[in-house]
C-alpha cells in the first residue's frame, strides 16, 4: 500500500531521530528522506514544526499498539488453549519480542530524547509501554494453570515485559543480544522462569 506524504514524513522522521537524535535531525533532512525537496517547506504543509512530527509519531504508535494488543489477546485466547503451557509461554514471549522489534526506533527515541518532552513521555509510557506490560498480566491471569498462583501479577508483568523490551533495546543499541544469548535461548530461559510461577502441584504434573 502506498504511503501518504504525511505517513512518509512520520516514518522517515522517526527513523532519523532514532539514528541521529532529535536535536541533530533537521527539517530539511526529514524532507529529503521523505521524497520532498529539502528546505522547500514541504513538511510544513502537513505539520507546524519538527516537534509536531515527533508528537504525531508518538500518538500514532501508541494508538496502533492499543489496537494490536486487543487483537493479539483475542487471537491468542482462541488458539492458545490447544497448546501446552510451555508452547503458550513461548508464543507470548515471541509476540512480545516481535512487538518490541517493531517499535525499536520509537523506543530508542524514547530513552534518548524524550526527557525534554515530559508530555510525550507520558504518551509513550501510558499508550505503548504500560499496555505491553498490562497485556502480559492479563494473559497470565486467564491461563488455567496459573489460576491458583499467589503472585503479584502487575509486578511479574513488569519483570517479564521489561526483560523483553530490554532484550530488543540492548540488541539495537549495542549490536548484539545481552549476555550473548541468541533469541531462541532467551525465549527458552524466559519460558523456564515463567514456569517457575506455576503453583507447585501444576509444576509437578508438568514435570
Give a quick set of tags describing it:
elongated; mainly alpha; 9 helices; single chain; 207 residues
Describe this structure in words.
With 207 residues, the chain is mostly helical. The chain has nine helices and no strands. The chain has helices spanning 5-20, 27-33, 50-79, 85-102, 104-113, 118-141, 153-174, 183-195, 200-206. Helix 1 (5-20) packs across helix 3 (50-79) and helix 3 (50-79) runs parallel beside helix 6 (118-141). The longest helix has 30 residues, at 50-79. The protein is elongated, with a radius of gyration of 20 Å. The termini are far apart.
Q: Which term fits the overall shape?
A: elongated
Helix-residue proportion: over 70%
Main sheet specs = none
CA-CA gap between termini: 48 Å
Describe the protein's topology.
Layout: H1 5-20, H2 27-33, H3 50-79, H4 85-102, H5 104-113, H6 118-141, H7 153-174, H8 183-195, H9 200-206
Helix pairs in contact: 1-2, 1-3, 1-5, 3-6, 4-7, 4-8, 6-7
Short structural description:
The chain has 207 residues and is an all-alpha fold.
